Amino acid sequence: MAAATTTTQVFCLAVAEKTDSVVRILASEADLSSYSFFHRPAIAEFVNFFTKTVVERTPLGQRAKIEEKEFLGHVFIRPDGLAVVMITIATYPSRTAFSLLNRLAEEFSSKFPQKATWATMNPSTTATRYPELKLHLQKAQDPQSADPFMRVQKELDETKIVLHKTMESLLARGEKLDDLIVKSDQLSGASKAFYKTAKKTNSCCGM
């Protein structure tokens, strides 16, 4: 299977909650239109797996950029455990990505200020409870038009630590991504088989 075309620059925007014991995706929107219809379910599972893994392995209060094959994951986790994630093509400007995530975190916490409301949220309710997320995803497809949409970047300019990591570097010593995928209960048997095939052919799903 061929990699996604550049018509889609942002594959996913997600909001999650990170606690000591679990990572819960609260809202998520994806654009996988550049991929074959038959492969989209497997890719959607890997996007979900990637999102949970990077949130789980990134410390509170940190912004990180994770490279994995032709994908680029941007994550921002606030001290209160609210996490926002953006998965893009490898050449997507990080300034624009983190700017959007900064605004996204503020908007979400303003609309849903109490953690008690987060417990009732999940990706299946995104369209009705947080329809703005889909609009942000659409707007982000064009970085040049998305930038003016964001607030002034002073805070991001002053941020000294934005990590550059690969997925492998997020794992604990001795862990391997292949083993993590095999053990994951987030991925179906079909998706795991698809991953193995894609890896052998250096195809799209390096996640």
Keywords:
six-stranded mixed sheet, SNAP receptor activity, disordered N terminus, Longin_dom, disordered C terminus, Beta-Lactamase, 10 helices, 207 residues, alpha+beta
Strand order of the largest sheet: 2-1-5-4-3-6
Query: In total, how many beta strands?
Result: 6
Q: Low-confidence segments, ≥5 residues, pLDDT <50?
A: 1-6, 203-207
Percent strand: 15-25%
Number of helices: 10
The first-to-last residue Cα distance is 14 Å
Helix coverage percent of residues?
40-55%
Strand count, sense and closure of the main sheet?
6 strands, mixed
How many individual domains? 1
What string, H for helix and E for strand, traces the elements in order?
Answer: EEHEEEHHHHHHEHHH
Structural class estimated from helices and strands: alpha+beta
